[in-house]
Amino acid sequence: MTSSFEVPLTRREAVVQQLRQEIASGQLPPGTVLKDAEIASRLGVSITPVREAITQLTAQGLVDVAPNRTRKVSGLTQKSALELVDVMQLLACAGFAGGVENLTAEHIASLRKRYAEFTGALERGDVTAASAAGADFSTIVVMANGNRELQSLLDQVVVRTGRMMAMEPGSSLWHPWVTGYGEVLALLERGDRAGAVARYRQIYVEYRAAVEEILWHGDAEGAPS
């Protein structure tokens, strides 16, 4: 019999999770200097798990270390932004295609709920909640694939790419997801799983084009340079 007991987060894991969330939401914007003592005091932990967490976030590309050992939240260049989109596309589309055949009626109901939360948050102007609900929409399908390592890698890329989404609710970068998720959901509810996979892949084509437009023309506030 398999136990459902979940091992609690270690202090390092808890700090990693908290800092990753703050980076993704823009609470810690690119260029922010990370100081061990300040973070430890704010989070109510010792300096050791903070140092370990920052080391892990550095390995994941979320933190840059300057020659003088100063640690800063990393930024995005035009080249790295598009590279992140390409990596996210490879991981997410592979996970989605692998998980879609395992979806149950309960999964699809959860997708409908997440989509409502996603669009509702955008209507309220809450981009943090919209980002979380949008990521959960894909995660439901990817996790149905059963490949937790794939989801772990995807989570890291999504956090870094998410900075491009942390802008005004009306940004053109949201449009591929709002339209695409809605159409993917409709296809799944009709039982057209192959069509849903094809439409999901198309989201990334449209999203990359929107990112390129912003990068080259600077149409959106907060776009990477």
Provide an overview of this structure.
This protein is mainly alpha-helical and 225 residues long. The protein folds into two domains: 11-73, Winged helix-like DNA-binding domain superfamily/Winged helix DNA-binding domain (Arc Repressor Mutant, subunit A); 78-217, GntR ligand-binding domain-like (Four Helix Bundle (Hemerythrin (Met), subunit A), Up-down Bundle). Helices cover 67% and strands 3% of the residues. It contains nine helices and two strands, in the order αααββαααααα. Strands 1-2 form a two-stranded antiparallel sheet. It comes from Geodermatophilus siccatus. This is DNA-binding transcriptional regulator, GntR family. Keywords: DNA-binding, Transcription, Transcription regulation. Pfam families: FCD (PF07729), GntR (PF00392).
